[in-house]
Structure formats: C-alpha cells, structure tokens
Design brief:
By secondary structure, this protein is of the alpha/beta class. The protein contains 17 helices and nine strands.
Length: 362
Amino acid sequence: MFPALASFAALRNLGVMDWAATFAAALRSDAPVLALAPMQDVTDLAFWRVMAAYGGADVYWTEYFRVHADSRPERWIVDSITQNPTGRPIVAQMIGNDIPALVRTAKELQQLPTAAIDLNLGCPAPVVYRKCAGGGLLRELNRVDSILGALREAVRIPFTVKTRIGFDSAGAFDELLQIFARHSLDLVTVHGRTVAQMYRPGVRYDLIAHAARQLRCPVLANGNVYSAAQALEVLAGTGVGGLMIGRAAIRNPWLFDQIRQLRLGQPLTVPTGRQLLAYIRALWEAQVSPDATPAAQAHRMKKFMNFIGEGIQPSADFLHQIRRVANDKDFFRVCEAFLDHEQPMALGPASEAETEAQMAVA
C-alpha cells in the first residue's frame, strides 16, 4: 500500500467513497503524488481502464470540459468520472474564460464523484489560446485573478490549477504565483514551458522549484518526465509534492510503478517486447468501436503509437512503418516484427530532443 492511497483504502473499507477527502489526504502525504496528465482525445475512460491494469497513477485528470455560455459538461467526460475504473481520485478539468459559465459548470461537476476541480491555464493549442482560454489567459493576469476568485468561492472541494510559466516568456511568473497565493489553491501543477514554446526543448525545472518554494500549497512538476531515474531527479531537484506525467506514461504504462519501486529501493519492473505488444493489443481492444472500420481503428491507434514508438528502437523505422498501415492485419504485422521477442525494453526516448520534437498533444 502506497502512503498516498492509504486514506482511500480506509474509506473503501467503510463503504464510503469521499474522493475529495482522499485527494486531500494524498496531497498531505509524504509520498509524492503521481498524476496522469490530461490529454485531449487520449486519456479517456477506455485509456484509464488500460492504465489501471498496469499499476496506474495515484490521481487522474479528465480531458478538459469546454466551458462557455451555452455549454454543458460533455457526456463522455462525465462518464469517465461516474464510471471511474481506476479506483483512484479523479480531478475534473475545465477550460474557458466565461466566469458565470465556469462557476455554473464547477457547481455541476461537484455533484459528481469528483475529487477536485481544476482550471486549465496551460493548453498551448492555437485554437484554444486565440480564444483567450487555456494558455491564452496567461496574457491577461487580471482576468485570471477574477476567474480564480469566483471559482474559489464556488468550489467546496479541492480547487487546483494547471499552468505554464507564461505565454511567450516567464517574465510575469512571479506575478502569476502571487495571484495563485491570494486564492488559497489546494494544488498547482506547473508545466515548465511557455505557451509559445509548445513542446520544444528547455523545460524550466528551476521555475517549477521556485513555485514550490513560493506557494503554500503543493506543486506538481510537469514537462518531459520520461523515466523513473529522471523522475526522482526532478523530485529531488525541485522539492515538489509530486509529478504529472503524460506522454511517457502512454509509451510506458509501467512508469508509475517503476517510479514507486525505485523510490522504495525495490527491483525495477522491466517489460519485454512481448509484454509491450500485449499492452498495445489491450489498447486496441479498449479503443475498438463496433461501427469502426479496420482502417478507422488503425488510424485511431496511430495517436497512441506516435508516443509508444519513441521507445521502440529503431524508432524512426518503426514509426515510418506504423504510420502507413491501413488495417488491423498490417498494424499487428508491423508491431510483431519489432516486438515479438523476450528482450527487455527500456521504453525511454532515444534522446530528450527527439522526444520533445515529436510532442504534439496539449
């Protein structure tokens, strides 16, 4: 039993499921919180189910609810909360800038078995930031201040924020931290890049460490955490309360358990090629839609394979072939050609630069 989840076990034994209390207890624990990052059209209910079978994260963030004057919470994201297959707390993330709509949605989401409400201040997709949402709000800190004030008043469970260090520079990062401090946030996740930087090299772990020192609430470090050894280096070097991991967890579903094992001095789980192949098959089955053609299913899987392929060497050869398959037969023919073996798989990127250059999910 990992310390961060001890309170969950106690509540489960009582037949009670107070996810907000479970999440709050995890944030107070001495053990680092390991969170699965929200990634649109990737970290859905089906993906969570697969991840949970491999040990999984301590906490899961939903895909973001798009909030505007006429919005209602998307049903498929609501389902990921109400049908939670992970046995772990779920944080509901919102994106938008309409204060009445954000308040209304936050109140609705609190009626679900939700552990916390999160505001997205980090999405770097141009279609999002051009509407002054996600990372675009970092250009209008007064507006951020107003939104956080309204939401803090409306949210009765833990209230969290996921942010980047600035829009096109980190020059206003201290001012942003002061705004966060004014609103008694329960957790801040800092992705150590600017919005304009997207996913290019140069994660500012020094600024993540600065946030951890300045804020009274816990901070999670986010941005290019790609292995268990490097994860422990980030934890030690920043003093944060935990890590949020996205792309590397898609590539390596064993990563969360590997971090726990390394931290506790236990033998490290190192999967073989056939075990990775079994994971890919599990993903395929989880993503199958009854009305999808083999070509459509193969196309859907390419979103995951763009990340998994980084850990399959030679990655360029594998990705070149897998991106050209058009049906299930060809898809698994390529996967088996590279993975039908019992050799251990490190599942790390060929290099940090290669990994960051291929990142494309908000």
